[in-house]
Amino acid sequence: MAKIPGIVFVAAGIAIAWFSRYVDARTENQGLILFFYAGIVLITIGVFKIITKYITNNKEEPKKETNISEEEKKIRETIEKRKIITCNTCGTRHYSTSNYCHMCGTKLK
Questions:
Q1: pLDDT (tens digit, 9 = 90+) per residue, 56-76?
Q2: I want to staple 13 with a disulfide (CB 3.0 to 4.6 A). Which of 43, 78, 81, 106 is the partner?
Q3: Residues 6, 47 contacting (CB under 8 angstroms)
């Protein structure tokens, strides 16, 4: 289930509260007062979510790469070892592990 951002709660709360007050003022009826309070509750929830997200984002420490598997370490080392070479015929760039140019088919090694 997707998390709903706080700004959505605030926007929905403002819309619901404003609309209920607008309709009540036009009809001179207090039948939508419950919706007004529901809008206020949504605004409060949204502001709370925004504040808590701001506080938690500022407290997070950078993640350390201590839980890297051996296989992932080998993959990273392999990627770092790759060099870029250029095809003498068409000038296309390739990794040094390539045997043939993927554009013109010329043998690179």
A1: 877 656 555 567 788 888 887
A2: 43
A3: yes
